Amino acid sequence: MDDNNIILQAKNMYHIYESLSLEGNVVALRGLNVTIKEGEAVAVIGPSGSGKSTLLKCLGGLMKPSSGSVSLGGKEMIRMTGSELVKLRQETVSFIFQDSNLLPELNALDNVAQPLRHQGVMPGPARSKAMELLDRLGMGDRWMGVPEELSGGEQQRVAIARALITKPKLILADEPTGALDPITSREVLELFERLHEEEDVAFLLVTHNRDVAYFCERSLELRDGRFVAQHGTDFDLSDLSESRELIIDETGTITLPPDLLLKLGGPGRFDVPDVDRDTLQLERVEDDKIEVSSQTKRILSSSCPACNHDYGESAEQLCPECGSSRPMVQA
Ligand SMILES: Nc1ncnc2c1ncn2[C@@H]1O[C@H](COP(=O)(O)OP(=O)(O)OP(=O)(O)O)[C@@H](O)[C@H]1O
Ligand SMILES: [Mg+2]
């Protein structure tokens, strides 16, 4: 791959949250590799707690990963001083967070104008650009509101306008349409699609929304801090098994999603009778099969452990209500 076209690249990235609690440290990212090309749109999908927000924060330089490297626009972030990093971020990347992170004392207009002011643009032109964006996001008549006077969806639109105003080459967004109603969400997506197609803006978007995933060229499935699979443009978020391409990473690690593990008959040991350049065949060691199937027959749980959603007959793997991963339980 031509390195010049890469806007963001992470190699072997780990992140551990240290904690003194009884549960101990949390390993949130386990050796991730990601490459985003200029102008590419990539979605990250995965259950609650799988590490999506942690990934975005580490990639954007808001949090230092415990190990591994991240480069933005071809520059290794770890080698940069604080002020170089701030400048590179201001010029290249914008964030849209899950909780909109607006400045509480500024009204919507000044929140949106602020990143331009930081770049030295005068208040007049900065405000008029901000107003234009607020208008495009259907917030033209709410510009005077301070964050606490705005609804969750309105705050999110202000955060989106704020992210777009500097014309970044890359937007990292954590569930950008999470707090929006379907119509507003559609409008925001249309704006993203236009930026992507007409201005070649690259996106890395965390989402549970199929329309968001649909506008991306590919989606990466994150589970327990590892990328387990990739999906193309056209796929069903409620049944990932149809479109899944499993990832074997540079260390040779494969992580099987629970539904595949179930189809395979559960954990065990496997012979590898045949390995060709592009195929891998696995056959369960017979002893193991008896042990696994007689002691623990496991099925997908019928309800969500987090919110009690009833899955009924469906084969969904992420809870449509809360996004939690569907566990396997003993039959
Ligand atoms: N500040 C923190 N301290 C300790 N553990 C944390 C912290 N933030 C996140 N975690 C843990 O790290 C793991 C990954 O969390 P993360 O917020 O990245 O998940 P997520 O995929 O964004 O989930 P969601 O879909 O609910 O937003 C979880 O187990 C979480 O409990
Ligand atoms: Mg999150």
Helical residue percent? Answer: 25-40%
Ions, cofactors and other bound molecules = adenosine-5'-triphosphate, magnesium ion
CATH topology of the largest domain: Rossmann fold
Radius of gyration (CA) equals: 22 Å
The domain count comes to: 2
Which band does the percent of strand residues land in? 15-25%
Q: What form results from the Cα inertia axes?
A: globular
Low-pLDDT ranges: none
Order the strands across the largest sheet as they lie in space. Answer: 6-7-8-3-9-10-11
State the secondary-structure class. alpha/beta
The CATH architecture name of the largest domain reads 3-Layer(aba) Sandwich
The count of strands amounts to 15
The SSE order reads EEEHEEHEHHHEHEHEEEHEEHEE
From the N-terminal CA to the C-terminal CA, the straight-line distance is 47 Å
CATH domain class of the largest domain: Alpha Beta
What does this structure look like?
With 331 residues, this protein is of the alpha/beta class. It folds into two domains: 3-221, P-loop containing nucleotide triphosphate hydrolases (Rossmann fold, 3-Layer(aba) Sandwich), CATH 3.40.50.300; 256-330, no CATH class. It has helices spanning 52-59, 82-92, 108-118, 123-136, 152-164, 182-199, 210-215, 258-263, 286-295; strands at 6-17, 26-37, 41-45, 67-72, 75-76, 93-96, 170-174, 202-206, 218-223, 226-231, 245-246, 270-271, 283-284, 298-300, 328-330. The strands form four sheets. The chain has a seven-stranded mixed sheet, with helices on both faces. A four-stranded antiparallel sheet has the order 2-1-4-5, with helices on one face. β1 (6-17) and β2 (26-37) form a beta hairpin. α3 (108-118) packs across α4 and α3 runs parallel beside α5. 33% of the residues are buried. Bound molecules: adenosine-5'-triphosphate (ATP) and magnesium ion. Adenosine-5'-triphosphate binds next to β2 and α1.
